[in-house]
Fold each of these.
Amino acid sequence: MSAAAAFRAMFRCFHGCLGEYPLDQILYTCPQCGGLLEVYHDLEPLRRVSAATWKEMFAHRMARGPHPFFSGVWCHKEWVLPAVDEANIVSLGEGRNPLVPAPQLAQRYGVEQLWVKLCGNSTTGSFKDLGMTVLVSQVNQMRANGTPIRAVACASTGDTSAALAAYCAAAGIPAVVLLPENKISAAQLLQPLAHGALTLALQTDFDGCMAVVKELTRRPDIYLANSMNSLRIEGQKTIAFEICEQMGWQVPDWVAVPGGNLGNVSAVGKGFEMLHALGLIDRLPRLLCAQAERANPLYESYRSGFQTFQPKTAQPTLASAIQIGNPVSVHKAIRTLKRFNGVVEQASEDELAHAMALADRAGLFVCPHTGVALAAVEKLARRGEIRADETVVVISTAHGLKFTETKQRYHHRQLDGVTPHLANQPISIPASVDAVLQAVEERIEKSK
Ligand SMILES: *Cc1c(COP(=O)(O)O)cnc(C)c1O
Ligand SMILES: [Zn+2]
């Protein structure tokens, strides 16, 4: 795209204070009101390219690349981070996540079409790669231009830290991750260790880690990688672009996403709004944000018509990546949900575990958070809020292989408060054909 220099993006205050700040300034909150920033794209130059040309160009890059445009994030570079030099982009092939039909679940829930967007099929096994490639590329560019950033730091429930560690390792930038001790999975703890990040287990919960990292990154040489840094949202919003591309530019009726710190529900909304504003789609979906009942401050706010919002102490939940009681991006989420006629629903431990097991039975291998979203879809469908003729896309946020302990405990019937209807166990038998055949006879029906 020859006119690349014309595309402009900058930070602006989310709450509407005047002022624009360049993306290479170290700034996470509005200097005037202290609220969150958002990346604002000047839509005029983007509008000078027709919707049809954009669609063609995205498809061409998706098919042909070359690196880094082969990435599901960077094939949309002009819409994401127009001013980053190609040479500074740190890509691990993120995005390009399958959108697969789940007809067995659709039938069970009573909806016409249910699709699952497998965002956990990625380098670090969660959708956090989408935002992290953007943030680390921007940091890489700032360091190349002489900004003295010594390290990039985040607080995490396990997936942000894995993504930060991987992208920093790829770029050769030191990473510092703050994790709540004993509250993340073994795989999630191993990931930053393997990537060589300075990995600190804090004796607190996620909200406690978040408070520390906010203080820490007041120093100009330690850059903040949490999603309160709105650069992350720019990558996450490409989920909406991919969904529409994969559906032949049709828009689903509903998009469901599990919510914890609540950056992602607003990111998905932002992606759809941008597509709509630039004429690539002609309507918007409704959004469903799904929370674990044990970490549900947004759900409670929704029940009050978003009149009030009360942070709370999140209780332990199998959906550990969304065990957050004081979500940083709550105001962004509420604004997005209002614009998208959104709904917030919650799922108990029993409901999320059952939904997860059911999805696995349908050939997926989903994480507990995706279980929360699926359980929420089921609830809305059963009470008719999602109609039988509607199309639903569920964003599957992480790969089930990151959460094998949870699945193991489910199948070993060791989860408190969960009735494991679908538990399945290995059967120990002698090493003989007879013994195998006997097991088949006993457990698998004859074909008709
Ligand atoms: C981060 C994360 C979420 C929630 O995203 P938020 O922006 O924090 O609401 C959901 N599922 C998984 C697996 C995650 O890592
Ligand atoms: Zn402001």
Note: The pocket of zinc ion (ligand 2) is lined by residues 13, 15, 17, 30, 32-33, 35 (CB under 6 Å).
Amino acid sequence: MQGFSTRAIHAGQDPDPTTGAVIPPIHPSSTYAQDGVGGTRGGYEYSRAANPTRTALQEQLAALEGGRHAFAFGSGMGASDTLLRVLMRPGDHVVIPHDAYGGTFRLVDKVLKHWGIEYTPVDLADPRALREAVRPTTTVVWAESPTNPLLGIADIPASAEIAHGAGAKLVVDNTFASPYLQQPLALGADVVLHSTTKYVGGHSDVVGGALITSDDELAEQVRFTQNAVGSVPSPFDAWLTLRGAKTLAVRMERHSDNAERIAELLTAHPAVERVLYPGLPEHPGHEIAAKQMRRFGGMVSFLAAGGSGAALRICATTKLFTLAESLGGVESLIEHPGQMTHLSVAGSMLEVPDNLVRVSVGIEDGDDLVDDLRAALDAVR
Ligand SMILES: *Cc1c(COP(=O)(O)O)cnc(C)c1O
């Protein structure tokens, strides 16, 4: 098999046969001429069902995750919703991470519960807890690794074994790692989910999601349901995501380099109580992360020693780290999950500590990032 970057730059992206254009065209057409009724050219009839720019992106994403099928969505949540509708029926049960992405928890707890879906939050770092949580009605084990925003690590092969033993599918939200750092299908997962808004797109200029699987039957159901519910990306969004993903490998190496330096700064600084980064040997998931990830990525969280006031002041003081939600872009961001990205889990059992700060370490020069964050930490000592 070709290397990761070769696939990122070439899979689904052969030069256009009519013009020779090296870059896949953006096809805004909603409909396609038929050569006689039912005589489609390449299967295209209407762009909710299929669109050539989206096909190019899907072939690229399938190649990057090592899966047979990929589906691009209008958002990560659109992908999650479609997948859960495929895999669950009223009365079915899903295991979710006890520190799941807030939007995933909100979808299950606030929306799908009205359709009779039951769920149990579990610490997926503990395979025993997962074994105890699965029931005869469990159809999905939903894992995230590393988790957003606490950087918890799930043992993917162990989770796959337990899920399959219970007759359930293992879904891995691979958004934080990206396909460059971690390949869940090879580790036993049935489906990989991405918010391509984050590292895959990588430039904070497009919202999107994706599902990748090698299960032909499941892929057919996803294809049917996605077309039925209509959660598709625009051709321009598909094109932006495809363009961003070409440089994923070089970006993830640089994100990881810079994040390691930021984790080092935070570990040594008195304004910090605890650093959450799977690359640190003292992280409880470090050994498992080292086995299933190439490197440890660009996301770092920490607990401010001075409580929530200090956490909020650090977020307000950095200059290069922009105070904003989201993550995974080339620019560095900082945020307070308790009052920003994870407000949707406030008061629930997934509530996050109020002195938690999350940084998405970008690919600027490492020295500048270290200087900027150090100045903000010094200011609250
Ligand atoms: C952002 C995010 C999502 C949701 O994706 P959207 O593109 O915002 O809909 C899901 N999972 C994780 C881990 C995320 O960070």
Note: The two ends are 52 Å apart (CA to CA).
Amino acid sequence: MGVKENLAEIKNEIDSISKKCGRLDKVKLVAVSKFHPASAVLEAARAGQILFGENRVQEASRKFDEVSKQFPDAQLHIIGQLQRNKVKEAVRIATCIESVDRIELLDEIEKRCAKIEKKIKILFEYHTGEESKSGFESEEEIRASLKNFADGKYPHIKPSGFMTMAPFTEDESAIRASFKKLRALRDSLQGEFPRFDLRELSMGMSGDFKIAIEEGSTMVRIGTAIFGAREIK
Ligand SMILES: *Cc1c(COP(=O)(O)O)cnc(C)c1O
């Protein structure tokens, strides 16, 4: 099957799971195109997909300069660990950085966005599973960042919610527990900071997006099920 057919099938699945859980909101689909060429992204864009995810800035940059010539509405989320020296380029090409995993990164994002007068969305990546290693380890640190937001420290950044990666395991209960943890974090911090709209829960990948939607995901990040297997480099 091609990208177009895969996309249609995934969207159907997302809709039917959402319906089954009685969800009225729309779950967003981030098509993760890392390791796949611009031609694959263009194929998805022609099939109506506008939201993409990449985890390496340089790779994304090359690809999306080409894609946005043909599809100016295409949007890019950065979903991989971001080094400080890549932030300048990341904020140029992305509309959201989903993988903010330390406070230092926010200072750099603010500085770079201020320079180009751009407002960008971010998600706090939270470490919820035993095996994955990325993300904030402590809720306290995220709370401290949100206090900085409340104090007006980051006028060019819109905190929009949370992201996580579940552990890579066959154990469904461990995956579910990881997603529940992110949702609980969101609910508690949203309660503490009502002035921000922190509703986004970016959770769920090709192998576990059904569970994620059942647990309240608002945004699933799907690569393999749309573009096929990636070549391991
Ligand atoms: C690669 C990647 C995905 C997509 O994974 P698939 O299993 O191919 O759907 C999602 N999120 C992050 C952070 C990734 O790095």
Note: The CA atoms of residues 111 and 156 lie 9 Å apart.
